[in-house]
Amino acid sequence: GQVRVGSESLPVAPAATVSYTVAGDASTGGVATDIDMYLFVTGDHLVLVTFTAPTRRDGDAYGGLDSIIRSIRAI
């Protein structure tokens, strides 16, 4: 299968994945944040996709699913 990102067609399986947790602090009410990063390689492009899981602050939803997709022209 393929995933479309703009005009690019990416393989579904990422070339690399990184998952980690950022410890909570005062800004998040002590609740940790989970971060997942996926690197796709297609032709002469690298595409980094980052997902940040929701955290909670004072009992209310804080933040949310935030995906950032950046295409970098390989040098």
Key descriptive features of the protein:
two-stranded antiparallel sheet; 4-stranded antiparallel beta sheet
Report the uncertain regions: 56-75
**SSE order, one letter for each helix or strand:** EEEEEEEE
How are strands sequenced across the largest beta sheet? 3-4-5-8
* Strand percentage: over 45%
Largest sheet, if any? Answer: 4 strands, antiparallel
- What gyration radius follows from the Cα positions, in whole Å? 15 Å
What is the average per-residue confidence, as pLDDT, rounded to a whole number? Answer: 64
Distance between the termini: 27 Å
Tally of helical runs: 0
Tally of individual domains: 1
Q: Percent of residues in helical segments?
A: under 10%
The count of β-strands is 8
User: Could you say which structural class the secondary elements and strand pairing correspond to?
Assistant: mainly beta
Overall body shape: elongated
Summed up, what is this model?
The protein has about 80 residues and is an all-beta fold.
Outline the structure in words.
The chain starts with a strand and ends with a strand. The protein is about 0% helix and about 65% strand. With about 80 residues, it is mainly β. The protein has one domain (about 1-75). Residues about 55-75 have low confidence and may be disordered.
